Amino acid sequence: MSDLTRRDVLKASTLPLAAAAGIPLLAAGASAEEGIAADPAKTKLMALLRNNQTYDWQHGFGTRMNHNAMVLVALYRLGATAKRLQSYYDGLNRPRFSIARGQRATKITASNWTSALGRSDSVHAYIRYFRARAKADGVQATLKAHTPRLVQGAAAAAFHPLIKLGSGLDIADTEEIALALANWATSYEAVPAHDPKHEAIGFPEFVASLANDETLRKIRGGSGNIVQRMRLYYRSPAFRARLRPIKIDSKKPLHVVADTIRSAFTKHQHFTLLHGLTSTHAMRAVLPYLGRPEKPLTAFCHALGAAWLTAVVLARRDSKRPLPSRHPVEAVLKKRGAASSNNHVIKVTWSCLEEFRAYGQEDYLLLAARDQASPARFS
Known about the structure:
This protein is mainly α. It has helices at residues 6-12, 16-21, 40-59, 63-77, 82-90, 123-137, 139-150, 160-170, 174-186, 203-211, 214-217, 226-234, 237-242, 255-267, 271-286, 294-312, 330-339, 343-359, 363-373. The N and C termini lie far apart (40 Å).
């Protein structure tokens, strides 16, 4: 059960960075064991999450299974009933394979925990490690000790571990948080190094520099998934040469980043940029645990830049779609999102609503309505 209570989350917001930033955490709600008897949907959510968590152990963090917890939390936040949560879970296809035989016996400890980053054969070792750290040190200390390094591999599994962690923090569930950290560690995707002595630039300027680089625009190889496409740029000397420290506003560390991604997704309704939006939403929950955020958020921005390139340059078909002409009602968006059968429509609806509440930019509501009518595609 969770040891991350509402009081813990509020305490996190008093860290120097968060106090200066004034950025809201994802709503933590009550701890997992609090008040669920009076909330049938919360009771059902926690029961389904507990069941799903056994699959993370048995099958690792395969893409299909990895979405389950995130979608369940998003459905709950969109107002789904206990019956709707159960019907979604009943409709899932369960993998039949097991990862048990392929797991390394190496023990992960506080002194060597970075040694197996990116190794999928260390799933069980990392799950044991993060469970033990959360139990011994508490969730707050565990997050502060590990997320600054993990964010430097933010593109792991197409940003899904970050999104999974954001969901775990939202419901304040220790097990879900530990599993998300293990997922992140085993799929860690290091961003290329850059010279920190270079003059810092804003995130919009960084993206513009990528857009104007003829060498980057000539890169081809559009087959493969999101991470495989991003690696094309990670390996490119031209991309590495463009990397600079990113200016981070001490008062609003993520505002410019979020607005740039919102603008990009507005122009290009591409599946990869959808993940940019949902991961930026999740990063608001992680932000208070990063200490000095400049280094990890620079890495996050570099990953988002590579993701932007894959969506705009490597896309095999035009992803430009107009926004709806009428501003939708939040209650309608929530209802439609909770009723959707599309995992990513459910998640992006929740993220858009949360980003709208955080920043007041009404285009987020239009983005949610557009995806509900015609979901973003991977091309």
